[in-house]
Amino acid sequence: MIENDYDNTIIPLPKVNRKILAKVIEYCKCHLEVPKAEDKTTKEDLKTFDAEFVKFDESTLFNLMLVWIFSNLYG
């Protein structure tokens, strides 16, 4: 959604607590702040970030997946 200029779109996120919302914002910031250049180092850094980002307990992963599902329904 962010990459497709939906940054002003309201996405309803029922039952999303502040811990999960903070993680979503962290993820979005990282992906937005990465230069769009074809820099191989930057892409590798992003892959590393993504791999580390998903190391959560099942409950947190489930809630992050719900945010992803809702964002895809409304985006």
Notes on the protein architecture:
It holds the Pfam family Skp1_POZ. Belongs to the SKP1 family. Keywords: Ubl conjugation pathway. Pathway: Protein modification; protein ubiquitination. The protein is built from 3 helices and no strands. The protein is an all-alpha fold and 75 residues long. It has one domain. It is globular and about 40 Å long. The mean pLDDT is 76.
What's a concise summary of this model?
The protein is mostly helical.
Protein topology:
Layout: H1 18-33, H2 40-53, H3 58-74
Distance between the termini: 6 Å
The rough form would be described as globular
Percent of residues in helices = 55-70%
The main β sheet shows up as: none
Oligomer: single chain
What is the CA-atom radius of gyration, in angstroms? 13 Å
Total number of helices: 3
Q: Would you identify the regions where 5 or more consecutive residues have pLDDT less than 50?
A: none
| Residues in β-strands, percent | under 5%
How many E strands? Answer: 0
Secondary structure category: mainly alpha
- The topology string of helices and strands comes to HHH
Mean pLDDT: 76
Domain SKP1 component POZ: 1-32
Pfam family, one: Skp1_POZ
Pathway: Protein modification; protein ubiquitination
Organism: Solanum commersonii
